[in-house]
Specification:
The protein is an all-alpha fold. The longest helix is centred in the middle third of the chain and has 14 residues, at 36-49. It contains 5 helices and no strands. Residues 11-58 form the Insertion element IS150 protein InsJ-like helix-turn-helix domain.
Length: 97
C-alpha cells in the first residue's frame, strides 16, 4: 500500500503500535511498508498534535500565517521552533497535510 493510500486511522494505528511497545520501528517498516523517515514524521506529528494532526486541512487562517511570520522575524526563532510554537497549542497541522 502506498503512502497516499494510508488513512488517518491507519497512521494513528501504526504510531500507537510503536508508542505502546507492541512493535518497534523496524518491525513497523517491514510490516507496513513505511519508511523510517515517514514514521519519524508521523510520530512527531502525533506527539505535537495528537490524532487531529492527521486530519486534512486546505489552508491556514491568515492570522496564523501572519503570527508565524512575526514570530520568525521578531522572535529570533528557527523555522522549526516557529512551527512547533504556532502549531502545537492551536492543534494546527505544521506540514500542511
Amino acid at each position: 500500500m502506498s503512502k497516499s493510500e494510508r488513512t488517518a486511522l491507519e497512521k494513528i494505528y501504526i504510531i500507537q503500535q510503536i508508542e505502546n511497545g507492541s512493535i518497534g520501528v523496524m518491525e513497523a517498516v517491514r510490516r507496513f511498508g513505511v519508511s523510517k523517515t515517514t514514521l519519524a514524521k508521523w510520530r512527531m506529528r502525533y506527539k505535537l498534535e495528537g490524532c487531529e494532526g492527521f486530519q486534512k486541512r486546505r489552508s491556514y487562517p491568515a492570522e496564523l500565517k501572519l503570527q508565524a511570520v512575526m514570530d520568525y522575524l521578531h522572535g529570533g526563532l528557527s523555522p522549526y521552533q516557529v512551527i512547533k510554537n504556532t502549531a502545537s497549542p492551536l492543534k494546527v497541522n505544521s506540514r500542511g497535510g
